[in-house]
Amino acid sequence: MNKGMSFITLLFSLALFSVLFLVFNQWTASQRKSAVKTYQDFQAIQIAENQAQRQFLGLACEQLIQQNGLTFRIQCENERIIVRYPTSEILIKTQ
Fold it and tell me: Which InterPro entries match (predicted)?
């Protein structure tokens, strides 16, 4: 009887562990990317709402805001505010 682990079993175990580890790493990377995108969207929404409040108070619309290493470009029009940033853009209506 063979009481030890065979070389083939050891290689199979290592390969299985490696595949699981790589799949987990890819999953966490995609989750991180999704979280970053969600956070940037949230920042853009806050900036747009802030500009809407500035318009309501009669203040000028800011054209450019830098936050957390990102540049947000703002375009205020009559009834809408557009915030553009590297991954996307959002538009809110003010009326």
Answer: Uncharacterised_HI0941 (IPR020511)
